[in-house]
Amino acid sequence: MSSIVPKFGFFVKQRLLKDLRQCRSAERRVRYLIIINVSSGRAARETAQVLGIHNTTVYRVARRFRERGVWGLLDGREDNGTTKLDEGYLDILYRLVRSSPQKHGWRRPTWTRELLVKTLERQTGVRVHVATMSRALALIEARRGRPRPTLRCPWSPIAKGRRLAAIRRLLATLPRNHVAVYEDEVDIHLNPKIGLDWMVKGQQKEVVTPGQNVKRYLAGALDVRTGLLVWVEGERKTSALFIALLAKLRDQYRHAAAIHVILDNYRIHKSKLTRAAVAGLGGRVRLHFLPPYCPNDNRIERNWQNLHANVTRNHTCANMAALLVEVRDYLWQQNRTRLGLHYHLAA
């Protein structure tokens, strides 16, 4: 038997085994297993290896067992009383993190753990340590992230809601011989967008930029029913690019009685050339404008975000031709995946 724990009788061992079976605390179960293993003659280092812990943990638990017996295996923090991080405290913390410090009387625009401690003490009367605040933030699954810049819609909430409701009704009652698409443009830059990436300690990856930037533009339309993407490419983001997309939609959906295009208020969508082109299509293409500055209501935006994440961000292409090959391959692959899923669901 190992010398780091005293000898104990049959009934003590049976009690340990019984408590182990009934124990719901993972940390306490490890303590029971440590004592059971070393009392059976297994060395401290071997016990640590079997249980996947450090050998110092084995020695510390064995010392507590020698000094206090079975009671030494309990978590001493259980005698500290009611936890400060109760449900009410965490609920207030959740609402604070979702808001701004300036809404609670502070001049600072971003939260720190120290500021959260002071604010919660003011609201609840409970003061916790900064380290405890870190644990509380983990419990509500908070994280430090980069805010997304956005512009507020200048319309009133009623007018905005009315327009979005009309678009939802259009999609909900869309006839079978009609098509609806979400439309938007995306910029493709030869100088890569810089994004987050995993790196090892002491490393900072480098993204080589060609220097003088070159741009290309895609105008795309996302089919509401199938999720398939139709796009055209251009060297300039002009009305001609948008009109080229409308012509491609006309050819792509030549059997459709009407093509409903849901889009934002960018100037090329409302220019005189665009209005003339739409009129020349004989009413088959109908434009439905979203409220201003509402990119989250344009479903194609997610496709462009995925394109940047999977192709253009931190890319290593030496020229625009190579980059466009990557862009097309990615979009074609997305369409093949969507087409296969669409046929699977139809079957």
Short description:
It contains twelve helices and five strands. It is α/β, with parallel strands linked by helices and 347 residues long. A hairpin with a 5-residue loop joins strand 2 and strand 3 (229-234).
CATH architecture of the largest domain: 2-Layer Sandwich
Distance between the ends: 67 Å
Helix content: 40-55%
Question: If you consult CATH, what is the topology of the largest domain?
Answer: Nucleotidyltransferase, domain 5
Task: Count up the domains.
Answer: 3
State mean pLDDT (0 to 100 scale).
89
Largest sheet: 5 strands, mixed
Number of helices: 12
Overall geometric form: elongated
Radius of gyration, taken over Cα atoms and rounded to an integer in Å: 31 Å
Q: Which class best fits the helix and strand makeup? A: alpha/beta
What is the tally of beta strands?
A: 5
Poorly predicted segments: none
Q: CATH superfamily name of the largest domain?
A: Ribonuclease H-like superfamily/Ribonuclease H
Q: Just give the CATH class of the largest domain.
A: Alpha Beta
Strand content: 5-15%
In spatial order, strands of the major sheet run: 3-2-1-4-5
Assembly state of the chains shown: single chain
Query: N-to-C SSE series?
Result: HHHHHHHHEEEHEHEHH
